[in-house]
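Problem: given the chain below (394 residues), write out its structure.
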Amino acid sequence: MSKELIRLRNVCMAFDDELVLDNINLYFNDKEFLTLLGPSGCGKSTTLRIIGGFTTPTSGDVIFDGVRINDIPPYQRQVNTVFQKYALFPHLNVYENVAFGLRMQRLPDPNDPTGKKKVKIPEEEIHQRVMEMLEVVSLKGFEHRKPEALSGGQQQRVAIARALVNRPKVLLLDEPLAALDLKLRKDMQIELKRIQQQVGITFIYVTHDQEEALTMSDTIVVMDKGSIQQIGTPEDIYNEPKNAFVADFIGESNIIDGIMVRDNEVQMYGKKFPCLDGGFAPNEPVDVVIRPEDIDIVPVSQGQLIGTVTSVTFKGMQYDIIVDFKGFKWLIQTTDHCPEGERIGIKIDPDGIHVMKKSKYSGMFGDYSSFSEEYDEMGDATLASDEEDSADEE
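Solution.
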């Protein structure tokens, strides 16, 4: 069982009477890769700054290894931070950038019985630690290069090495991949996870990118408007979202109003569908989440529901298809091409239907009437004939 390293207890943060963090209770385990995920303004970076000591919470406690550290300054905490802007010293080469923090440190003199005398870290130890860290971040042989001669990914790894060479117990990372291009960002996701596993310390990572969170994390904390919406593994967060906000923020989701008729049976569009969920009151109104990849396109005669294709976008590995069901537009991701205007049937297996309790987010997400800027503006589906309307209900 993992050891708890950090705990935030009843933490609130307000700026100019505006509540930014609302009674946050959260713990971080030793050697864990935990991601704070949410939209801009949700409080994730403020949470990171409180852990790092750059911001003092309005109320609540920050506990580090069993000790309250609210009043301990950043430089005395066993925590280092990598920001979005790497802030490398342009006049120093890679070696000197990484060694900089070690050269600034003063340690108790082992020959001084009073413990008051401070001495520099020996140059031999600095060299050994810097070279070890450059090897960890795959920059051995780059010691004499200046930052201007490095790629964005290499500069980021220098910043990580500079933070890790001081041997912190926790590394905080505030959207460090945001400035990188897509391919490099994907490569660095894998590299960051490798580094975390190799050095064996806690990484606390902040991002608004759900793919980054799913790729790297042991645990994801989804936040919105200063509150925690859900905590879990990537698999739990994706497959069993707690509310419509989480379902929409983590991946694409069709979120439909439903009625939980009884355990393992939910009703949508007046039709009953078998599902795997239970524990709801009979006929309780619910939100139903159906992921785009869990929908099968079938002939109209075999469809549980029947709708009209309003948009088709080729995405390389798949087509993103928007289908109108009675004015509510679903996203379906499939390798099958369906032309615009075609009437199609869909089928959903019980394990592809996820039922959630109603929340303050109900009704806010899940309709793909305006899917994304990358899509052309979609017109409303052609009004169906009376015959087609009756077919939709069958």
